[in-house]
Write a structure and sequence with these properties.
mainly alpha, 51% helix, elongated
Length: 260
């Protein structure tokens, strides 16, 4: 759940202000790029292609609005949802062996399984996957859902834009073959989403490579990231979907899964 109170909002802004100048610039650039993408399509490209008002224009405009809303909302949710150990009761399960417990001298706490310290955020992150420079934060237990949907909508929007621009340029613009190099970034976006989605289906994060300790089956793996209502979270990041695990006590869940 990403609804915030006024105090949480100011806490969020204070956290953002502590980020590096480069990350903040990249984050703002990305946000402006998404809005520019929407405005160019809705106010220039689509009116050139379809008469106003028309069913085709409204269909494209509503589709773009839905995609851009989810792009922005999920991107901001990635930034806001806190997956760090700050303010959380880190209980060590009786199933967790002493060999699995490490101590973080920076955060001054016992580090749970699947939790790693981020040098850029300067804090330990639950179920840490990686640090996302564009969102200025780590992708972890409580914001992986938003990050995955953000990547999906970014891939869909990129593919949609390729088709739209191709159709537009075919009728309105004279282009050279070399101009098609602009399509290259789409391959990177789609590849990034494919690799991330593949890890999620296997219950993995970046640090775990090909381990199978936390593979609870496809459906349970999806619930671990997207929550109990995983099948409708694609509609909006504002849909509440409770996560089955707390991101701390992983070993007991592994034992329960093995005894089933």
């Amino acid at each position: 759940m990403i609804m915030m109170t006024l105090d949480q909002f100011w806490k969020f802004l204070n956290t953002v202000r502590k980020k590096s100048f480069t990350e903040i610039i990249l984050c703002l650039f990305f946000l402006v790029l998404i809005l520019a993408y929407y405005c160019v399509n809705v106010f220039h490209i689509l009116p050139c292609m379809y008469q106003l008002p028309s069913v085709l224009y409204l269909t494209h405009m509503l589709s773009l609005t839905f995609m851009v809303f989810n792009l922005l909302a999920n991107f901001l949710a990635v930034m806001y949802a806190d997956s760090s150990v700050i303010g959380r009761l880190l209980t060590i399960s009786k199933y967790t062996s002493k060999e699995d417990i490490t101590y973080c001298y920076v955060c001054q706490c016992d580090v749970p399984l699947r939790c790693w310290h981020c040098d850029k955020c300067n804090v330990c992150i639950l179920t840490r996957d990686h640090h996302c420079t564009f969102s200025t934060t780590c992708v972890g237990h409580y914001n992986r859902r938003y990050f995955l949907w953000f990547l999906l909508y970014l891939s869909v929007a990129s593919f949609y834009e390729i088709i739209l621009i191709s159709y537009y340029t075919y009728y309105k613009v004279t282009i050279k073959f070399s101009d098609l190099m602009v399509l290259v970034p789409f391959q990177s976006v789609l590849t990034g989403f494919h690799l991330t989605a593949d890890k999620v289906c296997k219950g993995l994060v970046c640090h775990e490579k090909q381990e199978s300790n936390y593979d609870f089956g496809l459906m349970r793996n999806l619930e671990t990231v997207f929550g109990e209502k995983w099948y409708i979270t694609w509609i909006s990041p504002f849909i509440e979907s409770k996560l089955p695990y707390n991101g701390i006590d992983w070993q007991s869940h592994v034992n329960q899964y093995k005894t089933k």
